[in-house]
Amino acid sequence: MTTFPTAQAVRTTPEGLLWEPGERWVRGRKGEVTVVDSRHPVLVWEPGVPVPLYAFPRTEVREDLLRPAKNPPTGTHTGSRIFYDLDIDGDLLENAAWTFPAADLADHIAFEWFRRTGRGLDHWYEEEEEIFIHPRDPHKRVDAIPSSRHLVVRIDGTVVADTHRPVLLFETGLPTRYYIPREDVRLDLFEPTDHRTGCPYKGTAEYWSWRGDSDIPANVVWSYPDPLPAVGPIKGLLAFYNEAVDITVDGEPQERPVTHFTRTLSQRPQA
């Protein structure tokens, strides 16, 4: 009999990899070809990488589609030395898969995700839901909660948003994001861009940039027009990077957080 919660310990390898068994049925495809069909995936965290990857037992991978890599990037992926090219009807995808050097994972194969790296398998599913960018971290929460706090957003002293009906999004490891109804945002002060990003927890975001002359980074505002069900309350609402604007909540100015987005925002794209 299993007693819950089990709180399975994450295992550590001498190479610094963290891993734990997963319980989801995972499939990975390249085009219409199913390359991975696994009910025993393993979640793997590489040193210094905040998001996990999946590795799969060889018996649940189409090894007949794998070839020893012609140009293996030896040393990447925590010192991995065994890489594979994926051969789909003569279409060769280089270094699409690899085996981690850890003895614990020697019988498992990991794959690149196309939407994360621009190469690798292009469709992934957990159970019957398609997932994007990377596996969801089971130790991370994302909660979207409607609120009645009074929220004011300013750019260079100009009020660009004022609402009493934000949705607060709490995501492990990130500052609170405030999603605001469009009617409460001066969207006329911004212009839409072609920038798009994907998130495994929220979906695909579209962006707007500030029309003013001040040194505000591009794509400072975003929205999820069709978010994943778990964060449905943010559908169509607008959020600002706390790192780049001034936000006041219930009359209390919020400090601008320093996150991994801070450097990205400072690298303003050239026109």
Let me know the average pLDDT. 92
Question: Order of strands across the biggest sheet?
Answer: 1-2-5-6-10-9-8-7
Name the shape in a single word.
Answer: elongated
H and E string: EEEEEEEHEEEHEEEEEEEEEEEEEH
List the uncertain runs: 1-5
Beta-strand content:
35-45%
Task: Give the tally of β-strands.
Answer: 23
Helix content: under 10%
Write down the Rg: 21 Å
Distance between the termini: 62 Å
Continuous helix count: 3
What is the makeup of the main sheet?
Answer: 8 strands, antiparallel
SS class: mainly beta
How would you portray this structure in words?
- The chain has 271 residues and is mainly beta.
- The protein is built from 3 helices and 23 strands.
- The strands form 4 sheets. An 8-stranded antiparallel β-sheet has the order 1-2-5-6-10-9-8-7, with no helix packed on it.
Secondary structure: elements and pairs:
Elements: E1 11-12, E2 18-21, E3 26-30, E4 33-38, E5 42-45, E6 53-57, E7 66-68, H1 76-79, E8 82-88, E9 91-99, E10 108-111, H2 114-117, E11 123-126, E12 129-131, E13 142-146, E14 151-155, E15 158-163, E16 167-171, E17 177-180, E18 190-199, E19 203-210, E20 221-223, E21 238-240, E22 246-249, E23 252-253, H3 260-266
Antiparallel strand pairs: 1-2, 2-5, 3-4, 3-11, 5-6, 6-10, 7-8, 8-9, 9-10, 11-12, 13-16, 14-15, 14-22, 16-17, 17-21, 18-19, 19-20, 20-21, 22-23
